[in-house]
Design goal:
The protein is about 45% helix and about 15% strand. It is α/β, with parallel strands linked by helices and about 475 residues long. The protein has a domain at about 1-10 and about 65-375: TIM Barrel (Alpha-Beta Barrel), CATH 3.20.20.
Length: about 475
Amino acid sequence: MFRNTMPRYEILSPGAVEVLDRGWRRIVSEIGVQFAKPEAVELFRKAGQQVAGDVGRLDPDFVTEQVALAPREFDVQARNPANNVHIGGDHMVFSGVYGSPFVREGDVRREGTLADFRQLAMLAQSFSQLDSAGGVICEPNDAPLDSRHLDMIYALATVTDKIYMGNVVSGPNAADTIAMTSILFGGRERIEQTPATISLINCNSPLRWDDRMLDAQFEYCAANQPVVLTPFLLMGAMSPVTVPAALVQQLAEALSGIALAQLIRPGCPVIFGSFLSNIDMQSGSPSFGTPESGAGLLCTGQLARHFGLPFRTGGGLTSSQTADAQAGYEALMTLLPTFLAGTNFVMHAAGWLEGGLVSSYEKFVVDVELLRMLQSEFTPLEIDEESLAFGAHEEVGHGGHFLGAAHTMERFRECFYRPLLSSTANFERWLRDGGKDASARAGDIWRRTLDDYQQPPLDDAVRAELDEYVTRRRAELGD
């Protein structure tokens, strides 16, 4: 996994942080946050908070006390210990696209299938820049609705040996994720000791945590599995149109969700989540890769550090319908501030297209190239006497060239970044090779990667126990 030791890019003054701090405190105490689950309301009531119906008006100092119980950093174990990750500090964990109902393969846009899900997981396994395949990499629409979560977790557990994300559609689905993960890692005790999944709990912004997400959160927090408490804010729709107002709302929602997590199980790991962008005020469509979202992302990192929390934001986001130039520059508009902010957990790092409606094979490769380049760019230079290459100047002299110098010959294989996708061929050679643009070359790369894929080994007894669990639960669910 990648460690980002570069300085963080912080854009909020101490005075601005104080204003934002007063803002979220007013929201949670005067307007309140809705928790659409009686057990959640009862936990706040027992903790001495004001509750009217399912709306809690929370003491801001109580919220910060609860937030302080969450660990600043924690580990998540993978089936292959070499793929274990650390969340927090300088560490950045990259995860694939999540939640898309559709898939794009070249010029074809269609509903996602279980075969697509498995193939996208295989791609995530194959590229070292990704630490996690993700969760709902695409929606497998050809699998039965009530039991498809079993197919997804089974695929994540078998075709990859990296960490994965749990299902959050319902409490029972979360319980199935925990049960299957327990089988994979040798018992629930093992995963409670060191977590093995990360799950996304979205707030139904503005200011409402709904019952299905809370049901899943209760299951995961009780099992000590980290959850990403994420306000879903599109400015102009789910939040006011100014970045400061969105930041204040984001703080109120995320911190209240984190406080609930600590009421469920004090000390359970959490990630401060952020999904902040805006709508197009002319069409009402969501916009991604915008300057506003980039600024909000940088602010989010600074605010999460202010509260001592690991955080999630960013990714290769775009509104583009194809893996074209727009997809590339909008993805970079989000990924660059993701690195500048030092984001700890990055969802949608590869494959996101069309505002998240589409998981794209070609965009997956484009994003992997961006990740490779940014990870190289954000690796500090090693500067010493040897790197100054004084001897090369002595050898070459005035007006010569360094192509054949000893210093060059010793280093030419690894001295510069070597692209996965980009073409540096001259025009004639490019034509001879088929005149393919980046999207076409990306298509060649993902197909070749799947051809070369090798499934990681899994103990036969563990696989058999997973098979038995899936078969039994599928029957119980009526599929």
